[in-house]
Amino acid sequence: MTMPIKSICCLGAGYVGGPTMAMIAAKCPHIKVTVADMNEQRVAAWNSDTLPVYEPGLDAIVASALGRNLHFTTDIRSAIAGADLIFVSVGTPTKSYGIGAGRAADLRYIESAARLIAEVSEGHKIIVEKSTIPVKTATAIKSILAANSPNGATFQVLSNPEFLAEGTAVEDLQSPDRILIGGEITPEGNAAVEALVSVYANWIPRERILTTNLWSSELSKLVANAFLAQRISSINSISALCEATGADVDEVARAIGMDSRIGPKFLKASVGFGGSCFQKDLLNLVYLCESFNLPQVAKYWRQVVQLNDWQKSRFVEKIVRTLYNTVNGKRIAILGFAFKKDTNDTRESPAIQVCRDLLHERAHLAIYDPRVSAETIHQDLIAAGVSPELIATNMEICSDPYTAIKGAHALATLTEWDEFRTLDLPRVYGLMLKPAFVFDGRAVLSLESLVAHGFEAFVIGKGL
Ligand code: NAD
Ligand code: UDX
What we know:
Layout: E1 7-11, H1 17-27, E2 32-36, H2 40-46, H3 58-65, E3 70-73, H4 76-81, E4 85-88, H5 108-120, E5 124-129, H6 137-147, E6 154-159, H7 169-174, E7 179-183, H8 187-200, E8 209-213, H9 214-245, H10 249-257, H11 278-291, H12 295-322, E9 331-335, H13 350-360, E10 364-368, H14 374-383, H15 388-394, E11 395-397, H16 401-405, E12 410-413, H17 418-421, H18 425-431, E13 437-440, H19 447-452, E14 456-459
Parallel strand pairs: 1-2, 1-4, 2-3, 4-5, 5-6, 7-8, 9-10, 9-12, 10-11, 12-13, 13-14
Helix pairs in contact: 1-3, 5-6, 9-11, 9-12, 11-12, 12-13
Bound molecules: nicotinamide-adenine-dinucleotide and uridine-5'-diphosphate-xylopyranose.
């Protein structure tokens, strides 16, 4: 018989835990949803009018359930104790030390969450891996739970990876292409899967809820991100060829995307993909392949990351070479710092590498992003190895694009914010030093229009 879920807890109030649980609470008013995190500042922000995550439409979803059946708390133990089903949505960053450093997933937050769940739980609970983890992690979680439960609690472990993309999280959660749930193929495992299916079935058609064994579900998440990232590296590799030959990468993307076997999505050439997931998950896949003694497969997927690194560095080289081989002391307006539009997230943003390299070339950067705070930009660049002294002397954060552009030798667009598509080009031209150079890393501006307005323009993937 399916166990009715009355109370859910989620460990981790981040980009995934917060929005996902807000959607469950909004769609399931009969279920109490508690999101628990030790980060007091984050929890306070979820309980305030200024959410810690910027996502279009998220404020309304949170407001509809907050204080009714949606709660954010730092009291992790009580949240676990009171829940029938516990989502684990903690970070799984790339490991930066020891065995597998730079590739393997760091599972310390998963492990500590599992140990705490084991310690606090009583009765029967369903544990759901929401975080992206290497295949077979459920085995580790099960063994930690089994070995550390003083109260004799029993558990079923499920895999339920999240496929939302930032910037469109609300839409993605409201109407996902699919929900994937993996479980043990036993009567108890099937019952746990059914319990989670019945939560999602409150708003998602059953035919879009896919159930598989645990390992297929765990692996599918890494594979989905690897395929998506591969498409971007593929089109970015072709962007370089387009620039060299006079072809236009958007025209090529349209031409190939109309083949229904290829499809039109995820073929937008860019300065490189960023975000907290693609690189981390690709490296994790590479590490897994190496661990299972499949070096050729590892090499194949590693190339997707290498191409992405090359795309970012060739963009910087293009700027330096075009500006007569030196950017020392030159003001360069940087438009956009987030890893994509409609988010305040900067994790692995290509802007970090581009700005770091330009600062190391001693450029003077004037950065504008509509959603990213000055504090975040400073922290990201310091973490990327830029000295605080260089930041103090060679970088300023501007509150509008035209202030950043004023007196600049060059402008570079690094995020595809909609507002950059409608820049007042005559005004921009008038504010800049001449020749006025534009480097559009997101193809948000029209090359023809830039040239017509007098700019020396480079748009990614567009040959002149
Ligand atoms: P995040 O860093 O924004 O949030 C993780 C949160 O977990 C942090 O606030 C941290 O304080 C908290 N935490 C750590 N240990 C905890 C514990 N024991 N108990 C309670 N809270 C704890 O990370 P995120 O972007 O939300 O990603 C979470 C997972 O989801 C990762 O595995 C990621 O790969 C995956 N994922 C992310 C996205 C995305 O778009 N960001 C999409 C799909 C999947
Ligand atoms: C990704 C996956 O899309 C999502 O399913 C998964 O759950 C988490 O990882 P996210 O990283 O939030 O989501 O954003 P996404 O839209 O995938 O973009 C990732 C990066 O690729 C961004 O830097 C974006 O600008 C870039 N990108 C995307 C391109 O350069 N070209 C494209 O055609 C699409």
